[in-house]
Amino acid sequence: MQSILKWSPRILAIGVALFFAVFALDVFGEYPSANETLVALAMHLVPAIILLVATVVAWRDRLIGGVLFLAAGALSVVFFDTNKHPITFLLISLPLFATGSLFWFAAWYDQQTRARSYDL
């Protein structure tokens, strides 16, 4: 159980960041120069980079990482209006909420098992 709770949110966080990075691939072929393409690619990769930074933070502190991913899910609902279209919500916001919830639950479970080990 401990291993599943440790690795499932981490794997999901990396998967979500990679999923967001795939959206950056649509810049190829849209711009005439390589410089414009690189700038557009960098701009499109910003959400994936932010999620990777949140993953690194969550790797160290699951509670803070859970808050970051839950906040990212809430921001995606506010800024992208994912609550208006169920498919968009399922693809964009729900993985962020699920990742944040898993990090939070893993932190809670770790705290509970540590408290029980001190009681013994």
Give an overview in words.
- The chain is mainly α and 120 residues long.
- Helices cover 84% and strands 0% of the residues.
- The chain contains 4 helices and no strands.
- Helix 1 runs antiparallel to helix 2 and helix 3 runs antiparallel to helix 4.
- It is elongated and about 65 Å long.
- It starts with a helix and ends with a helix.
- The mean pLDDT is 93.
**Helix- and strand-based class?**
mainly alpha
- Provide mean pLDDT, rounded: 93
Q: Please count the helical segments.
A: 4
The gross shape turns out to be elongated
Helix content: over 70%
Please indicate the percent range of residues in DSSP E strands (runs of 2 or more): under 5%
Low-confidence stretches: none
The main β sheet shows up as: none
Radius of gyration: 17 Å
Termini gap: 20 Å
Summarize this structure briefly.
The protein has 120 residues and is an all-alpha fold.
List the helices and strands and how they pair.
Layout: H1 2-22, H2 34-60, H3 62-80, H4 86-119
List keywords for this structure.
elongated; mainly alpha; 120 residues
